Amino acid sequence: MMRFLLLFSRQGRLRLQKWYTAISEREKKKIIREMTTMVLARPPRTCNFLQWKDLKIVYKRYASLYFCLGVEHEENELLALEIIHRYVELLDKYFGNVCELDIIFNFEKAYFILDEFLMGGEIQETSKQIVNRAIESSDMLQETMEEYMSKPAF
User: Confidence band (pLDDT; 50, 70, 90) for 154?
Assistant: First the structure.
């Protein structure tokens, strides 16, 4: 099971965080600080897997963002790497070549896509088409509600 997913920039700025276990705010800040310094300090051509405490840390850099996943020791690292890649594919499909600014200005949509794909630290839906249809349905519902709410009620 996954414990957390972090997205941070090359400068170490946290852009998105998702926790799948109950952890205090103080411990979360400590983990974030340790993950960013540990991952950013690694040379570019090194392995994307780390051992940290009782977890395996799997990370991947896409453009200017690092996607960092903390999984339990018995989990498969390649599956974790594939989860990161699938999430990036979903973001790319929605935003059209996702960049850091897309995450910053549309963080609620990035969280929604993540929640459609993962639930409770496990893969909820493996099909990209089904996840994309759920995202499109949500967007249509949101547009309909905004249109409805903008009309005067006489």
Answer: low
